[in-house]
Write a structure and sequence with these properties.
Structural class: mainly alpha
CATH topology: TIM Barrel
Number of helices: 6
Number of domains: 1
Helix content: 55-70%
CATH architecture: Alpha-Beta Barrel
Number of strands: 3
Order of helices and strands: HEHEHHHEH
CATH class: Alpha Beta
Amino acid sequence: DLKWLKHKIELGADYVVTQMFFDNKKYFDFVEAARAMDINVPIIPGVKPIAIKKHLHLLPQVFRIDIPQDLIDAVEACKNNKEVRQVGIEWAIEQSKELKAAGVPVLHYYSMGKSTNIQAIAEGVF
């Protein structure tokens, strides 16, 4: 809720880290809405690579997020979690490159215990 976020900023928050998302348009729309409410602190995007098939159902359920159909289809086509990990890394690399090109202040990665995935993403992005 942007009203609550604005209140946090008024109380002294210096920046915002978003919930994980898989569709950059959601981030760009959120930033636009925040700026329209005069929220002008840096808004850091939270990127989470899909690591296992179970994430397709678990992440939306727990975090109330949407996963784009293209990503769902790519993960469902995988034969095992090694392939899922690679799809997740590749998606996060492309997502990160687009965010960087748009001038985001910094990227935040949700590793959930899979730091080697983040290392692979960083190698593909930076």
